[in-house]
């Protein structure tokens, strides 16, 4: 992990999340404030625009994967245009992309699955690390269940007590944990199965 010249205000080095935050900074998924301290706000909910921005930064981490859509005055504009272009984000029945709406856990899973599919990253998740048992939740949208199962079987999602809560809003902890696992598998060739033993994340 790279060195960061600030103090983490709300995540302790003793927390399981700490290494995810540091990896997220190293991968450029999140950025520091430029001051002497940095607040991660682990329980803060994430909007669709914020998640797409983090996913776009994941894509840009690899050399040559620049996202060159023009900025539109928002922090997320070029990332949202990129995600729409590649089919990662789709609007609702009215064509509304709802960038300021909170992203749900099932929407997060679908976007990550579509990202893996759009850029043909299957080789990094080809090992059959299946997890036995079912998912007890009701409330899944029909278009989301396959994505959730895939991410669960590849250990990108940990579903505590077989409960996924598909309609719950995503926290910054959950979003960063999932994206760091993806980035680690693709760019560091470190599968989550080998990296996550010993902590209790249920993201």
Can you offer a commentary on this structure?
The chain has 203 residues and is an all-alpha fold. The protein has one domain (7-195). The protein has 7 helices and 2 strands, in the order E-H-E-H-H-H-H-H-H. The chain has helices spanning 18-27, 48-61, 77-85, 105-118, 145-153, 172-187, 192-195; strands at 7-8, 37-38. Strands 1-2 form a two-stranded parallel ribbon. Helix 4 (105-118) packs across helix 5. The radius of gyration is 16 Å and the shape is globular. The model is unreliable at 197-202 (pLDDT under 50).
- Gap from first CA to last CA: 22 Å
Domain module tally: 1
Radius of gyration from CA coordinates: 16 Å
Strand line-up across the major sheet: 1-2
Total DSSP helices: 7
Are there runs of 5+ residues with pLDDT below 50, and where?
197-202
Mean pLDDT level: 85
Q: Specify the biggest β-sheet.
A: 2 strands, parallel
What's the number of extended β-strand segments?
2
Order of helices and strands: EHEHHHHHH
Structural class: mainly alpha
Q: Please identify the oligomeric state.
A: single chain
Helical proportion?
25-40%
Assign an overall shape: globular
Report the portion of residues in β strands.
under 5%
Defining key terms:
mainly alpha; 2% strand; single chain; 203 residues; 37% helix; two-stranded parallel sheet; 2 strands; 7 helices
Question: In terms of topology, how is this protein built?
Answer:
Layout: E1 7-8, H1 18-27, E2 37-38, H2 48-61, H3 77-85, H4 105-118, H5 145-153, H6 172-187, H7 192-195
Parallel strand pairs: 1-2
Helix pairs in contact: 1-6, 2-3, 2-4, 2-6, 4-5
């Amino acid at each position: 992990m790279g060195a960061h010249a600030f103090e983490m205000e709300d995540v302790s080095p003793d927390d399981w999340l700490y290494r995810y935050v540091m990896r997220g900074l190293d991968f450029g998924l999140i950025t520091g404030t430029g001051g002497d301290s940095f607040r991660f706000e682990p329980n803060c909910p994430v909007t669709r625009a914020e998640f797409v921005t983090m996913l776009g930064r994941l894509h840009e981490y690899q050399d040559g994967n620049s996202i060159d859509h023009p900025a539109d005055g928002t922090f997320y504009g070029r990332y949202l245009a990129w995600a729409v272009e590649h089919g990662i984000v789709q609007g609702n029945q009215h064509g509304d992309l709802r960038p300021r709406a909170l992203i749900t856990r099932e929407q997060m899973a679908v976007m990550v699955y579509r990202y893996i599919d759009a850029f043909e990253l299957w080789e990094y998740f080809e090992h059959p690390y299946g997890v036995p048992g079912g998912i007890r939740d009701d409330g899944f949208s029909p278009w989301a269940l396959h994505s959730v199962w895939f991410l669960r079987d590849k250990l990108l999602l940990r579903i505590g007590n077989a409960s996924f809560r598909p309609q719950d809003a995503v926290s910054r902890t959950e979003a960063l944990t999932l994206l760091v696992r993806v980035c680690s598998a693709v760019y560091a060739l470190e599968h989550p199965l080998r990296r996550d033993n010993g902590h209790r994340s249920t993201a």
